[in-house]
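A quick aside before the break. I want you to see a complete sequence-to-structure record at least once, exactly as it would be stored in a machine-readable document. Don't worry about memorizing anything.
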Amino acid sequence: MNDDLRKILEELRQGEIDVDAAISKIQPSADLGFAKVDLDRERRCGFPEVVFCDGKTADQATAITQAVLQRSDRVLLTRADPKHAAAVAAVCGDAHYHELARAIVIDPAPRDKTGHVALVAAGTSDLPVAIEAELTAQIMGAHTTTHWDVGVAGLHRLLAEVPEIRAARVVVAIAGMEGALASVVTGLVDQPVVAVPTSVGYGLNLDGITPLLSMLNSCASGVGVVNVDNGFGGGYLAALINRVSDHPPRSQPD
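That is the input. The structure line, written in C-alpha cells, reads:
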C-alpha cells in the first residue's frame, strides 16, 4: 500500500493528476446507494470485485461494472442474462458475453497466461458450470486446458486424457449425477483437485446435493469441494492455487 500511495502522491506533486483524481485513486470503495463497490479488492486480493448479476437489474450491474473499472482494467460478471449483457456492452465495448456460462468478461488487455489449470467435466450437461470455471481461471491469468465429456460412465475416455491432466498444477473436476469423477481423478494425479458438483441428474439427485455429498465423502486424498453449480468458485480457487508457484505469499499483510 505504501508504494501505491507514494506513487499517487508523486503524481499529484508533479501535477500529473489533480486532487479529485488522487482522492478517487485512494478511496477504498464507491457508494452507489444500492451498492458499496470494493475498489481496493485487486490490490489486496489480486483480482477486482466480481459482479454477481442474479437479482440485480441491468442498470445496477452496469453501474457496478463502471465503478470497478475506475480502478481496474478487467471485470468478471457472473450469472448474467442477455439484458445484463446488452446493458454492459452499451457502455463497455470490450464486454464479451458467454451465454452458456452466463458470464460477461471484460479484459481488453489479457495478461500472459501462466501455469496450468486442467478443467475436467463429466458430461456435456455440465458445461455451463465448467465453462464458468474456465473463464474465471483464464481472466485471473491461468493457462487452461479443457477435457469435456470424460465421465466415469465411459472410463476409457478419461484415461486417454490423464497424461495431459497430469501436466497441470491443479485440476478442477466438474460433475453431476453421483459425482464420482472427482474421486476418480484425484486417485490418478498428484495435484490438488477442486471438485465442483452440479445440479445435473435424475430423481433423487436433489438438485446437486447427491454429488455434493459424494464429493465431500470422497475417500481420495487431495480433493476440496465448492458449492453446487459454483463454477466461479472452483475456477477462482484453482487460479489462486496455480498462482502460488509464480507469486509467493507476501510476508507482511497490509
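Two observations worth writing down. The two ends are 7 Å apart (CA to CA). Residues 63 and 145 are 33 Å apart (CA to CA). We'll return to this after the break.
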